[in-house]
Design a protein that fits this description.
Bound molecules: calcium ion
Distance between the termini: 54 Å
Shape: globular
Helix content: under 10%
CATH class of the largest domain: Mainly Beta
Order of helices and strands: HEEEEEEEEEEEEEEEEEEEEEEEE
CATH architecture of the largest domain: 6 Propeller
Largest sheet: 4 strands, antiparallel
CATH superfamily of the largest domain: TolB, C-terminal domain
Number of strands: 24
Structural class: mainly beta
Radius of gyration: 19 Å
Strand content: over 45%
Length: 311
């Protein structure tokens, strides 16, 4: 092939690939009816969607709302865009989950943070394909997972103030992890901005002080460093991109009142608040579908997921 032909060929492949990606998301039959409340969960903590936008999963911590409980009653539910529960106990097929929280999907594997380990399941076969024991780190509150690249995940450990990078190998021996940030006040929700190569962190605060802040981990000069972006705000949990200039995150505010949604402008540093169709106590790790302007918010304390526009 001449070089012009090669360029043309590469362009054709790229266009075809992007069409396939768009087609994947176009396959989302229609925007969910909103507001809508989906019932039947057990302390739901997190909602995640596959990259092709076709499948949605909800993590359930189980009966007790105890983040560190190793009580064997956690599970992952698959729901449809119409809010139907497709399979309440989709995962695990065998084995167990204790109190699963944040999830991340790489290709066909759904990874979930479960108290002191990270477990991965093939979402086609439902088989367990990954199991990383982090109990030696002395955390009982592994919380959120975020994709860095196809072999690497970020993981927050709320109770020990750390963020980890997990390198996924072919097997247990070639899988490794390391802490890349320390001393964060209760790192909870994670959002990785690929273009800017920045990992944003929503803090749940130290213990029950409600002093969590929004911050960012950057890789500079051969090492990672953490920096606050806001003052202490509250009990921050879910975190996502809202639009080109803004991040959106949930704040419990307190344990007995309704929470709020906060928006942070990355350019100006300005903070503002948003609301859903109804108030949510303990707003956790939501899914925000930017294309639809819709938030899928776990109502952990009520065992429901609310689908609502963000106002
Ligand atoms: Ca549990
Ligand atoms: Ca969380």
């Amino acid at each position: 092939m001449k070089s012009n032909d090669v360029v043309r060929f590469v362009k054709t492949v790229l266009v075809a690939a992007s069409v396939i990606m768009i087609a994947g998301c176009m396959a989302m039959k229609h925007k969910a009816v909103s507001p809508m409340t989906i019932q039947g969960f057990s302390s739901p903590e997190s909602v995640v969607m596959t990259e092709d936008c076709k499948r949605i999963f909800v993590s359930n911590m189980g009966d007790k709302l105890v983040h560190y409980a190793k009580d064997n009653d956690g599970f992952i539910t698959e729901i449809g865009h119409d809010g139907m529960i497709l399979n309440r106990n989709y995962l695990p097929k065998d084995g167990h989950l204790n109190s699963p929280k944040g999830m991340a999907i790489i290709k066909d594997t759904l990874y979930v943070a479960d108290v002191d380990r990270v477990v991965g399941f093939d979402i086609k076969t439902r088989e367990k394909v990954f199991d990383l024991d982090l109990s030696s780190e002395k955390s009982g509150f592994l919380n959120d997972l975020e994709v860095f690249n196809e072999q690497t995940l970020f993981l927050s450990a709320t109770d020990i103030g750390k963020v980890y990078m997990i390198t996924i190998g072919q097997d247990a021996d070639s899988t490794s992890y390391k802490a890349i940030a320390h001393g964060i006040k209760g790192p909870n929700g994670l959002y990785y901005d690929k273009k800017a190569d920045k990992l944003y962190v929503a803090g749940f605060g130290d213990g029950k002080q409600g002093n969590g802040e929004l911050g960012v981990v950057e890789y500079k000069g051969g090492e990672h460093s953490y920096q606050s972006l806001t003052k202490p705000l509250g009990y921050l949990d879910g975190l996502a991109r809202f639009d080109d200039d803004n991040l959106i995150f949930s704040d419990w505010v307190s344990f007995d009142k309704s929470g709020v949604l906060r928006v942070f402008n990355l350019k100006t540093g300005e903070l503002s608040t948003r609301s859903l169709s109804e108030e949510v106590r303990g707003p956790a790790d939501f899914l925000y579908v930017r294309k639809h302007g819709l938030m899928w918010m776990p109502k952990m304390l009520e065992g429901k997921v609310l689908v609502s526009e963000v106002k």
